[in-house]
Amino acid sequence: MYLDLINLDGINVKAGSFTYCMITYDKKNMGGKHSTIGLYRSVVVREHQIVCYSPPKSLAPEYFIEKYPVITSDIVVQEFVEGTMINAFWDTETSAWEIATRKVIGARASFSSEKQFRDMFFEALAECGLNMEETLDKNMCYSFVMQHPDNRIVTPHKKPALCLVAMYSFEDQTNIIHHDIYEQRYRIKNVRVPNIYEYNDYNQIQKIFTNASCFLMGVVIYNKTTDERMKYRNKKFETAKNIRGEKEKLKYLFHSLKREGRAEKFLEMFPEHTERFAEFNADITKAANGLFRCYLNCYVNKRQPIAAMEPETKKHLYALHQLYKTELRPNNQHVTPEIVNEYIASF
Question: CB within 8 A of 216, min separation 6: which ones?
């Protein structure tokens, strides 16, 4: 019985409003118990009855892959949706739908906005035209990811939106049954579900989604039968999310975006970084001009022997001249400031 696990080390029990309790795992004391304590990512109990459950904590990729080495029809590879998790459940005592974030019953909290998650969620409901009492099954609880203009994480949103990521029901408080959200999407209109990706190789998935565009959060891989899951997080998304004005992280992101040709798109969404990006661009131009002058002095005008250069400069001069011999000269091209600029930006 799920409630029997509450006394385990690594479980937090927090009293909520009325007779609610919120049960969550203690991340610091979990150890490797993801298959037991990890079930308590966010569980709401009222008078010893589970009324709300959310998707469990993800397993470590190596453990999930060891357990499910082949991506069969039971394994779903889906979009990792950016936003804030909001769980909804029917309260039989009050005869009304109640909501909760991962740790706060009632969702009366926020990260950086003066507006509470509760208010944002109901604005998203109105935008979607979703009437919970008429549409949702009162015998189930629902996990949504909420996106809202006032709750920006990385990608800005022009209007509130909801994505349904999980549905659960309870069997005599002894079993938690998860339901297929993709079978319900046509009944719950204007609320989308995560996109499904057609991949069948873990290595390919990891390669694609851990180094994708900074606007993509990553990928979730889960077993439809057991509800066990794993995640690959996109490093660039995490960098963008955690920038918070830190110059070195922002500089790393700038170079990654510049290599991909995505810097302008990023600044459309994060105009507050325009001045910093201009500084980084100026640094590249300055370095490129200096390296180009050294190249001219060593290889074109023969005014300075390359042996006299600093080791770091010498390394780049050799690389540029190799580029000239193998790619530029065969096409009647020369080393120019623009080519040096591209070379510096490439690393």
Answer: 80, 209, 234, 237
Among 272, 273, 280, 268, residue whose Cα is nearest residue 345: 280
Output helix, strand, coil percentages for the chain, rounded to the nearest 5.
Answer: 40, 20, 40
Handedness of CA 228, 139, 52, 234 (dihedral sign): positive
The first and second tokens of residue 185, run together, are 């999407």
Q: Which residue has the tokens 């998650």?
A: 117
User: Exposed/middle/buried for 203, CB within 10 Å: 0-12, 13-18, 19+?
Assistant: exposed
CATH dotted code for 62-234: 3.30.470.30
| List of residues 6+ apart from 266 with CB closer than 8 A | 214, 240, 253, 257, 273
Do residues 97 and 122 touch, judged by C-beta distance below 8 A? no
pTM: 0.70
Nearest CA to 78 among 155, 163, 136, 142?
Answer: 163
Q: Where are the domains of the chain?
A: 62-234, 247-346
CB 78 within 8 A of CB 218: no
pLDDT along the chain (347 residues), means of 10: 49 60 70 60 81 89 95 96 95 89 83 82 95 93 95 88 94 82 82 94 94 89 94 89 69 82 81 88 88 88 81 85 87 88 78
Distance in angstroms (rounded) separating the CA atoms of residues 24 and 43:
6
DSSP code at position 196 = B
Would you give the distance in Å from CA 290 to the centre of its chain?
A: 39
Residues 83 and 147 sit within 8 Å (Cβ to Cβ): yes
User: Which helix (DSSP H) or strand (DSSP E) does residue 230 occupy?
Assistant: strand 229-233
